[in-house]
Input
Amino acid sequence: MPKPKRRKCKCDHCKLSAEIERVRKTGDFADAMKMVDYLSNELVQSQADENYHSAIMEGSWPSSVEILTRALANAKNFQREEPHS
Ligand SMILES: [Zn+2]
Output
């Protein structure tokens, strides 16, 4: 009986890891530079997201109160639906 093929995970992290591995193996400079550009953009975006979420959590974002009030209501609903063990 043939071994069942392991399915590749399709999440963004696994797809990115596979692409990085592919570029690493080929050693193609242009592809490597494209990867650097991509990762650089991702880093800038991640830092912007982090700043945004930090500002909300510390209450300095203009609509922090509305956002946190909604989040608190969601958190309470979530805890009601999935009680802790
Ligand atoms: Zn994955």
Remarks:
- The chain has one domain: 12-81.
- The chain has a mean pLDDT of 92.
- Residues 9, 11, 13-14 surround zinc ion (CB under 6 Å).
- The two ends are 42 Å apart (CA to CA).
